[in-house]
Each structure stands twice: as C-alpha cells, then as structure tokens.
C-alpha cells in the first residue's frame, strides 16, 4: 500500500487521549449491538411477512442492509481505538473496513434521500405518479445508483494515488490514512459527494410534503366544518345556534393539532438526519486543530445513524410494528400474512 505523507501533518500523536477513545468505544459498542440487532429484525420482518414485501419497503430493507454492514464493521473501529501500538491485525482487514464503511455510509445517506423522494411523490402527487416511480426498472436504477456512487468513491484510493484507505495513527481509527498527501482533498471530495445533494433532497422533499399537507388541511377545514355543523342540525332540532358555533372552534382545534403533529414528524426526520451527518461532514471540511480533536466524536455521532434508522423508518410503520413485536416476543405464527416454510402446519 502507498504511504505518502504530507509534510508538517500532525501525525506525532493521537487527536484524542486513551480515556476519550475508551469512552467512545463504549458508545460504539452500544451502537454496534443496537444497529446489528435492530437492522436484522427489520430485514427478518420483511422476509417473514408477505404484507411487508412491498416496493416501498425495498428502500427500507436497503437502508437496513447498509446500516447492518456499518454496525458490524464498527468492531474494527473499536479495536483500532483501543490499540496503543498501532493496528494489531493484518493491514488488508483495515483497508477492507474503510472500504465497507465509506460505501455503506454513502449508501445509507442516498437511501434516506430516495425514501424522501418516494414519500413526496406518494403524498404530493398521488398513487398514479407513485406507480410510475415504482416501476421495476426505475426502482432497480435507483438502487443501483445508491450503491454505485459510494462504491466508486471508496474505490478511488485503491485504483489511484488520491487518498489511502487504512489505519490512521492520529485518529487511531481504521478508515482512511490521514497522513497521506491527498487525505484532506479526499475528505473534501467525500463530503461534497455525500452531503450537499442528499441533504437538499431530504429538506426540499419533506418541506414540500409539509406545505402540501398544511394546504390540504386549510382547504378541507371550511367544508368539513360546514358538514359537521349541518349534521349537528339534522341530528337534533333541540341544538341551539350557540352550540352550532362551538363546533367550529373544536374542529379548528383538532385541525391545528393535526398540523402540529405533521410539523413535528417532519421536524424529527430532518433533525435526526442533520444531527447524525452534519458534524462529520463539517469535520471533513475543517482543518483547524479543534476540528481534528472533534473528528472522532463526530464519527461516533455519524455511526449513531445506523441504529436510529430502524426506529424512525420501520418501527413507526403500523405493519412493521406488529411483525417486529411478534419477532421480539418469539411468536412467529402470529405474524400477519406470515410466509409458511417447510415444516409449518
């Protein structure tokens, strides 16, 4: 492997102390367990239930596969964090770990963007447009693009001299060699490739969904209120006019609550994405000493995304909830529309 270092690069000592890395390793171990188990359950739920085998859930499964691979390979990051005398295992394993993590993190980010596009088309443009988007050819093209771009980005240091995958003695991690002369340029390329476009797609998609739902509520509110008041009059002639007028504020209150709930859902999705990806993206672009010290923390926050996604994009789904509950309670026969295997009665 190449080992070209930049003159003056501060590689003489780690960016974080052993105690800091031990604390971060504990968090990584928790993320590893939760991410591995959570994403396995999501994948298993789709395998066991016919009801969950939809075209939409292809992206949920794709997200879980990427996050599962990320979670599994965090074990090598923990080994690198806790090793004081350099990488103790074969160098090829460290290079493979960096290749997988760069690929899967990119695939996860792009899958989140595709999920946002799917939700926008379904809610804003209706089932007809959504059926066009869900054509097998289009879905296959989207899935291929999700993986092709990260694979190309992870392959650049392998097929060229632009960056290097492997162990970093400064960060005590096993992704990229930050002593390489083009390490910073490669970090900038990764940051610009993964984050701006996907972030813009997610923000715009969910913001359009929110604006559309809010406009729909405003349009429906007068008609629904009139229908409600009319039905009240027809049900009983004993209701007075003040009682009819009280129906509008109550209905408006319910509609306002609905708007607040929609706002919260969009806010949670966007904020969780930003909280997990933005710190590491900014750390890649920054060359200040403080940024170097915070890079390890930002990487752990980025890894957190791999165990949050199953909760946000799967367990809130009513059908997923039922299947996951049956899996956790070891009641496979109660899974809705369960797939029968050999030996089932």
UniProtKB/TrEMBL annotation:
<keyword id="KW-0812">Transmembrane</keyword>
<feature type="transmembrane region" description="Helical">
    <location>
        <begin position="296"/>
        <end position="315"/>
    </location>
</feature>
<dbReference type="GO" id="GO:0005886">
    <property type="term" value="C:plasma membrane"/>
</dbReference>
<dbReference type="GO" id="GO:0004930">
    <property type="term" value="F:G protein-coupled receptor activity"/>
</dbReference>
<feature type="domain" description="G-protein coupled receptors family 1 profile">
    <location>
        <begin position="38"/>
        <end position="313"/>
    </location>
</feature>
<feature type="transmembrane region" description="Helical">
    <location>
        <begin position="267"/>
        <end position="290"/>
    </location>
</feature>
<feature type="transmembrane region" description="Helical">
    <location>
        <begin position="23"/>
        <end position="47"/>
    </location>
</feature>
<feature type="transmembrane region" description="Helical">
    <location>
        <begin position="59"/>
        <end position="81"/>
    </location>
</feature>
<keyword id="KW-1133">Transmembrane helix</keyword>
<dbReference type="Pfam" id="PF00001">
    <property type="entry name" value="7tm_1"/>
</dbReference>
<feature type="transmembrane region" description="Helical">
    <location>
        <begin position="194"/>
        <end position="213"/>
    </location>
</feature>
<dbReference type="InterPro" id="IPR000276">
    <property type="entry name" value="GPCR_Rhodpsn"/>
</dbReference>
<keyword id="KW-0472">Membrane</keyword>
<keyword id="KW-0807">Transducer</keyword>
<dbReference type="InterPro" id="IPR017452">
    <property type="entry name" value="GPCR_Rhodpsn_7TM"/>
</dbReference>
<keyword id="KW-1003">Cell membrane</keyword>
<feature type="transmembrane region" description="Helical">
    <location>
        <begin position="137"/>
        <end position="159"/>
    </location>
</feature>
<keyword id="KW-0297">G-protein coupled receptor</keyword>
<protein>
    <submittedName>
        <fullName>5-hydroxytryptamine receptor 4-like</fullName>
    </submittedName>
</protein>
<feature type="transmembrane region" description="Helical">
    <location>
        <begin position="93"/>
        <end position="117"/>
    </location>
</feature>
<keyword id="KW-0675">Receptor</keyword>
């Amino acid at each position: 492997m190449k080992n070209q270092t930049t003159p003056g690069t501060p590689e003489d000592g780690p960016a974080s102390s052993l105690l800091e890395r031990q604390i971060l390793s504990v968090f990584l171990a928790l993320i590893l367990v939760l991410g591995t188990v959570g994403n396995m359950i999501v994948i298993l739920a789709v395998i066991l239930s016919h009801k969950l085998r939809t075209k939409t859930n292809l992206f949920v499964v794709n997200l879980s596969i990427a996050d599962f691979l990320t979670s599994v390979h965090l074990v090598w990051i923990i080994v690198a964090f806790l090793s004081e005398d350099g990488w103790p295992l074969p160098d090829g394993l460290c290079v493979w770990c960096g290749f997988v993590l760069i690929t899967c993190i990119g695939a996860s980010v792009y899958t989140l963007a595709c999920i946002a596009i799917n939700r926008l088309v379904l809610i804003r443009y209706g089932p007809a447009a959504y059926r066009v988007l869900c054509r097998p050819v289009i879905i296959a093209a989207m899935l291929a693009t999700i993986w092709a771009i990260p694979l190309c980005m992870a392959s650049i240091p392998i097929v060229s001299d632009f960056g290097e995958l492997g162990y970093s003695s400064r960060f005590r991690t096993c992704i990229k060699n930050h002593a390489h002369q083009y390490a910073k340029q490669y970090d900038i390329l990764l940051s610009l490739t993964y984050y701006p476009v996907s972030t813009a797609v997610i923000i715009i998609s969910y913001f359009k969904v929110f604006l559309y739902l809010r406009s729909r509520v405003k349009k429906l509110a007068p008609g629904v209120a009139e229908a409600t008041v009319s039905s009240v009059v027809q049900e009983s002639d004993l209701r007075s006019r003040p009682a009819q007028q009280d129906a509008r504020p109550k209905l408006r209150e319910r509609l306002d609550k609905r708007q607040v709930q929609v706002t919260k859902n969009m806010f949670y999705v966007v904020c969780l994405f930003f909280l997990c990806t933005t710190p590491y993206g900014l750390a890649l672009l920054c060359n200040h000493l403080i940024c170097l010290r915070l890079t390890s923390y930002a990487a752990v926050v980025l890894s957190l995304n791999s165990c949050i996604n199953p909760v946000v994009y799967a367990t809130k789904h009513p059908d997923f909830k039922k299947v996951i509950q049956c899996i956790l309670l070891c009641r496979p026969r109660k899974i809705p529309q369960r797939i029968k295997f050999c030996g089932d009665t």
